[in-house]
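Re: the 310-residue chain
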Amino acid sequence: MSASVSASPAFQAALTGISGILVTPFDTDDRLAPKRLKPVIDRAVGAGVHILVANGNTGEFYGLTTAEAEAMVHSVAEQVGGRVPVLGGVGRSLHDAIALAKASRAAGATALMVHQPPDPFVSPRGVVAYVQRVAEAGQGLPVILYLRNDGIGLDAIEALCAIPEVAGVKWAAPTPLRLAEAIRRADPRIVWVGGLAETWAPPLCAVGARGFTSGLINVWPERSVAIHAALDKGDYPTAMALISDMRVFEELRAEEGNGTNVSVVKAALAALGQDCGHVRPPGAWPLTDRQSKGLHAALSGWGLLQAANG
């Protein structure tokens, strides 16, 4: 099975758009509360976000049990209701990843997003074997590789891209020239996605990435869509101006060793009346007073607080 067979043209086209990484809602007793996502999902779909992702890093994937991750992909697929493709994030131990691949397929996910194994003793050929086993468990579902670290080397990345089910690569390393070389060495049918959200979308797009991931879509999907539209037209000045206006928000997310990445998104949702609960440790929660004030200033400057308050 080739990449062009395992992934439909419609899905490959969606990959060139925005992959929105949904948060995972919790209630006050630290239990899943997935129905709180409905207004977030509805607004993202209405704004034109192309793909929604359950169990991504903005969804606190590593803070969930395997059973919770299975529940989330089922709930997200149900709430999306086929309006856009759904990616099911899978990973951790091989057998956890296989279980999640099977659960994602049963839930009706369009494709699998395979997290890069964080094992301290990972080997390049071991990653290839890992993805092959997960792809087999998906029984024909397209696979999107999530590469947060390109240290496994271009030979291993080329081998990963040769796995028949692999339809796309989410490149989450700040190395655009290395990305360009990886693209050159891979099957041209594979879609490359900028995995560092809006701020890195322009340089990654410039070397061949044709889409980007976003956690901002939980809060302000219209801005993400506007940035994508500008990049799609090759209008880099407009894209950069739109991204510049987000700088405070993204700087806040990068604080504490990136430990406030999800915290800022969830605090913003609460401020906008779409509370999805807290962030589990080891993420930072709650925000400090300074961080909260900076976030509220950003939301006010964007006009979102005023809109939320009627």
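Confidence is low (pLDDT under 50) at residues 1-5.
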